[in-house]
Structures are given as structure tokens and as C-alpha cells.
Amino acid sequence: MATSNGFLSAIANNNRIALLCASVVLAGGITIGSVSLANGMVAMKRADREVTVRGVAQRNVTANRASWSVNYSEAAYDLSEALSAVDRDSVTIRKYLAKQGFEDAMTKPSSANISVTDEYRDGKYTGRKVYTVRRTISFTTSKVAQVQAVQANKDELAQGGLVVDDVNASYEYTELDKVKPEMIAEATKDARRAAEKFANDSGSSVGGIKSATQGYFSVSSREAPSGDEEYGSSGQTASSPDQRVRVVTTIDYYLD
Question: Which intervals carry biased composition (Polar residues) (predicted)?
């Protein structure tokens, strides 16, 4: 009988130990789960508290390279006559350019582009062919001021009896890589200031960066309204040598 009581007592003790162990494991699991859940809630709360800001940096630069081009043409019933007329135009244009310091091989005309069309009058074919000969003179130079003078005085060509199809001048700043690092830093600081102002107004503080995107560098003439950039990172030309370089950086900040 004593043996039976001792056996029952041992079973009861073992059950109490097992129950105690299970309670400890369950409590530990609840604690770990609570910590994980709390961390998850903090992460979710932090993810919901963020602000997106843009930082802008601008700088005035002066072009150090210029390009100039002129397209001109002559038409006649005879091809040789049209060619001769275009040759005379070439001489006139090259003389004009020589006055501004551009001559020799730099102003050599392109090969002639010749087209032939039927002549119509009052909707009826006249039976005659019209030969049109087109040529171009173009060059690129570091003489920016001289190109400005050529463009400003181009009416002299018309005064000399020459009517050209198209005259264009463009200006390029070739040292953009020299100002890029400083401008990126300026745009980033500008974005941070915007985020801090927003955080102060909302009773928060600025945390780490969630993501950042750098826009392309754009250039426009200085007199153009901001945002009317004439080109992006793929080029550096504008219609004026007095240019404005601009870059915009977009950054997402966490708010604490």
C-alpha cells in the first residue's frame, strides 16, 4: 500500500513539473512574440511617418563653345544656273563670316543637295522642271562672342540681296562635370532644410533617408522662366551663352 502511495506521489510530482515547464515555455513564447509584435508596430508606425521633399540647386554659367549654321538654296529651270546661283551665295556668306573672323576651311559649304520637281501653275503642269540646289555652312568654335556678332548682324545678308532659308546659333557649356558635385551637395542640403521645416511644423524630427532620386541636370538661357529648361543631361546647348544650370533632388525622409 505504501508502495502504491509512493508511486502515485511520484506521478503527481512529474505532472506538476511538466505543467511548470509548459508554463515557462508558454510565457517565454508570449514574451518573444510580444517583442516581435512591438517591433513590427514600430516599423509600421515609422513607415507611415515620412515626408517627400525636393531640393533645388541652380548656378549661372557662361558658354565656352558656340555653333553656327546657315541653310540656303536657289531654284532655276536649268541645273547649271541653280548651281551657279548657290555658288554666288556661298561667296557672299563666306565674305560676311570672314569679317567676323571665320574663314578658310571652317566655312566651307557642304555638298550640294539637288532636287527636281514639276512646275504647276493654276493647278496645271507647265511642262517644265524646276531644279533646286541647297547647301549648308556650319561650324563650331570657342569664339563665343564672335558667333554672337555673326548672329546679331545676320540681316546684312538680306541687305546684300541674299535670302537664306535658316540661320541658327547655339551655345554650349562644356564644363558641367566641374560643377556637378557641388550642385548635388547643395540640392541635398536644400532638401534637408525643407524636411526639417516640415518636421518642426508637425512636431516631429527628421530621421534617416528612405530613398533618394537625383534628377538630370538641365540648362536654359538665364532669361527663360525657371522650369523651361531647353535640354537635359544628354546635351549642353542653349539659345544664349548666358545660361542657368539646374538640378532637382527628390528625397524621402523618415519622421521620428
Answer: 233-242
CB 249 within 8 A of CB 191: yes
- Asked whether residue 21 carries a pLDDT value surpassing 50, the answer given is no
Round to whole Å and give the CA distance between 169 and 219: 16
Q: How far apart are CA 92 and CA 90, in angstroms?
A: 5
Decide: helix, strand or coil at residue 167: strand
The answer to whether the CB of 227 falls within 8 A of the CB of 171 is: no
* Amino acid, single-letter form, for residue 211: S
Contact 170, 63 (CB under 8 A): no
11 band by pLDDT with thresholds 50, 70 and 90: very low
Within 8 A by CB and 6+ apart from 226, the residues are 58, 244, 246
Record the pTM.
0.70
pLDDT at 244: 93
Q: Are 67 and 172 in contact (CB under 8 A)?
A: yes
CB-CB contact of 232 with 217 (8 Å): yes
Q: What is the pLDDT of residue 3?
A: 47
